[in-house]
Structures are given as structure tokens and as C-alpha cells.
Amino acid sequence: MQKTNRNLIIFWILAIIFLIGWYLFWQVKNNQEFQTIGSAIDFLPINELQKEKYKTMASFAKYLFEKDGEEKNFMLLFQNDMELRPGGGYIGTFGILKMQDGQVKELQMHDLSNFDGRISDTVPPPYPMKEMLRIDSWKLRDSNYSPDFPENAKKAEEFYRMGQGQENLVGIIAINSNVLISFLKITGPVEIEGYPGTYDSENAILNLEYQVEQGYAKQGIERGERKSVMKLLAQEIEKKVFALNFSQKLKLAEIILEDLNRKDIQLYFKDQDLEEKAKLAGWDGSVDKNWRQDYLMLVDANLGALKSDYYVRRLFSYTVDLSGEIPKADLKISYKHTAKEKDWMTKDYLTYLRVFVPKNSWLVETKNLDEKRFGEELNKKYFASLFGVPLGQAKTVEFFYELPKNIAEDYDLLIQKQSGSRAVAGEVTVINKNQNKKVYQIDLAKDWKLSEN
User: Fold this and answer.
1) 216 and 75 co-located in one domain
2) Would you say residue 306 lies in a domain?
3) What 3-state class would DSSP assign to 350?
4) How far, in whole angstroms, is CA 12 from its chain's centroid?
């Protein structure tokens, strides 16, 4: 394996689970004071919830680093959340990581513009991919069309097999581009020899996007080498990460735990015990199919609007009225396209919005939507529409619907966040049976629960 590839995978491994797991695992093995990873974590100056999540992380590390002679192969999905898809972002690249006895044996990197050519045109794409992306067949680059990561992981493996992928996979991990920012917040700005500018937590994603789409040509770099800047950036960040002191590493670990909580990193394991631990920690990116009370999830799919999600801001308000015989809901979602003119990165925004609500809900009316579609998925009902938001403009869409009667009995609400979306400011209003009103201001950076009991 070339050194640049090796450095790239080390960087991404750190971004997923190895920074915490590797560090804790080897600290315990080399420290006589601690008999187990759990006892080492108990010693850390953090709260109990963080300790439990660190222990979950450490159990993943133990699985990966123990010397059992087994080859463990993972599929890594790199998702660009500036082009938002239901499961996180457009998948331009994937990797197959091979590990054995705690060592990286090999990394196979695949550009999906090439790999997808090996997949036969036999799978009809879900609506409205064919219409908006002008494709006749569904393939790996668009496999994350569900808001449920376990479903996306299985679909990704299905397409991998269709493309003659042969490796026996033990897990699939999705990583959104926003994870890069987590590292730069701790390491500070990074410069790359031979490339202009500085990469920091404020500009890195935009600068990288420009470099691989436009800048390389102006610098005389061959198109096939345009993504080499990512490997070089990984090398520079790697140097800084390993030079961090303990408190800085702990801070970085905390930020990466937040990436897991925000679904910027999603984990799927074939091992049922590990998968259950990921689910209990909230890191498996799953839709809660067993939730029986009020539920809401807003899921956008950018289909053909380039990298416009970088410029789009969202707000929502949700009012539920429990005072009548039938509970009623009023949902408003506002989109603001902050870009002013079309360029290589953005144009008028176009989204296929699905609003997931409790099963047996009934849509009564909509506002500012020409198209209305309905369906059931993931033990939920969804209302859907395809619509646009022009450059420099704003649009608010509204859904009025009836909820199942049992919702009013013991009211609880779960709002799940879409992977890849920025934190969305929201207002939740609950009118109870006595017509008393409570208002909650929320910042939907991760899943949010409300209990009125």
C-alpha cells in the first residue's frame, strides 16, 4: 500500500472509533494500575453518560485490536453532506478496509464513477431519482436513500456484490464530510506544501470542494490526481493528532462522540452484540421503528442541485393540539437559499422532502406544495413532495394532519435528526387536553425527546 493511502486510512480510522478505542486500549494494556478498559474509563474526569459511551467505544476497539488471527473487513462510505441525501450525503467514494490482529493490512479505495459501471442496469431507482437525476438504474452511489442506516448499509453491500465485490464484510461505516471539522477544531489550521491557502475549521470543506472541482485545473494538476490533496491533508492532520497532549486527545474524543451522536458517523456491525451496543448508544443511525407515540423526522434528498446544501438553512415549527377528539398537528418547514447566483457549486435548490409521522396519521391539507405523495416505510407513514427554492429566496411549506387518537393519552414526542443535516432550529408547541400551551425551543443537532408525563 502506498504511504499516502495508508495515511489517509489512518486519518479516517481515527475519525471513526480508533482515536478513543486505540488510545484507551493500549493505555490499559501498558498501565499496571488498570485491570480493564472499564476501570481506566471510570478514572477519567467525565460524567457517567460519557463514561458509558466510552466503554461502548472501547468494546468496539477490543474487537478490532485483539490478536485473534481473524481478518476483519469493513466497507467505508464517504458521504458529502453538502449534497444531502436521506442517509447523510452523496457517496462519491468508498473503501474496503482489511484488518488483522489490530493492524491495517490493506485499503482498497474505489471511485464510484468507475465502480458503478460494473453494476448491471437492472434495479429501478426509487422516485424521483429517475426523473431528476436522469438515471435508469439504482446503484451504489445513491444507495443511502433511506433515513435508516442499517437499511442503507445492507443496500450498499447488495450493490457491492452486484459490482463483483468479493470481500467478506464484518461491518459498514458511513462518514460525513463534517467529521473533518471536528479534527481541525482541536488541531488548529493546517497548511499543505504546494497548495495555496490554509485549511481550518471554518473553511476546510469549502476549500477542499473547490480544490477537487476547480482549483486543480488552474494549478496544472491532472484530473486523475485532483483528490490527492485529501491524502496530503490527512497526513498533516495525522501529525498534529499524534502530537496532542492527553487533555487535547480527550477533547477530540468528546467531539467525535458528538459526531456519533449527530449521526455524522454511523456504524453497522454484522456481529449482533456489537450492533446492539451501537444501537443502545444511538450510533447505528437507525429510525426508531418501535416508538408508539408522536413522532417526526424531516428527510431531504438533494437531487441535482449540486452542492447547494452548503447554502441552505432550515427552520421548523411543530404544533400539536391534543384538546379535541382527534389530535391535530401543524408542521411548518422553512428553507432559505443564501447563495445569490449560480456557479460551479450551486444553483436553484431542489429537494424531495419526506415527513415521517406516526403510522395511521392522515394528511388533511398542505400549503405551498403542488405535489403530494404518501407511503409507509420503517413502520411509519410519510408525506412527501418535490419542490424547489430559487437562489437568494426563501420558501415555507406546511402540513396539516391528524394523528392517531391514542397519541393524546400519554403524550410523548420523538424527533429524529437526519444524518448529514446541520442543526435545525425548531419550536415545538403542545396544547394539552385543558387547552394549556407549552412551548419548547430546540436546536435539533441530534435526536430529541419530549415527555409530558
Assistant:
1) yes
2) yes
3) strand
4) 15
In this structure, are 85 and 55 located in the same domain?
yes
More confident site: 116 or 9? 116
User: Does 240 have pLDDT greater than 60?
Assistant: yes
The pLDDT confidence band at residue 106, using thresholds 50, 70 and 90, is confident
| Single pTM value for the model | 0.88
Answer whether residue 430 shows pLDDT above 90: yes
Cα angle value 326/330/335 (rounded, 5°):
160
**Domain tally, the chain:** 2
The domain of 98 spans 3-281
Read off the CATH number of the domain in which 34 is found.
Answer: 3.40.630
- Write the CA distances from 71 to 77, 120, 165, integer angstroms: 20, 29, 16
CA distances for 214 relative to 35, 92, 208, 217, 311, angstroms: 53, 17, 10, 6, 18
Cell of 383: 408525506
Share of the chain above pLDDT 70, in %: 88
CATH of the domain at 419: 2.60.40.1170
